[in-house]
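Q: Sequence in, structure out?
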Amino acid sequence: MRQDELAPVPGAKKDRKRVGRGDGSGYGTYSGRGSKGQKSRSGYKMRPGFEGGQLPLIKRLPQKRGFTNPFRIEYNLVNIDRLNQFKTGSKVTPEKLVAAGVIKSLRQPVKILGEGDLKHPLSVKANKFSASAKAKIEAAGGKVEEIGHEAKTG
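A: Exactly. Output:
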């Protein structure tokens, strides 16, 4: 097969619509534009969102206010009562929380919250602790260690 013998797949190439070339072509007289009206005129262009003079949807909807801070840090939140599944005296780290299925991934930093009670002493490492969580862990005889977290973009 040579390059000059190549042809496109049947139906891949269409002839362009030739308007205004007589009634026999199917696109004569009004050239497929119908009769009269704004859309039939030359130079017709409608701006996006124009609804023929009706109040456009974009103006009918309430205005959105405020903004979303792109630099906010979202945490994996873990309540104290979820830590009761670990053995007494064990070290709880974000990696162990993932292994136990308490959190799904280490993509976000971990914050321990004070909901519930801790039944035995644990050594807990996390990126952040609420004041009540810190108090409850220490009251149970455990240790609290904050790990710094690097800011992740995206």
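The longest helix spans residues 131-139.
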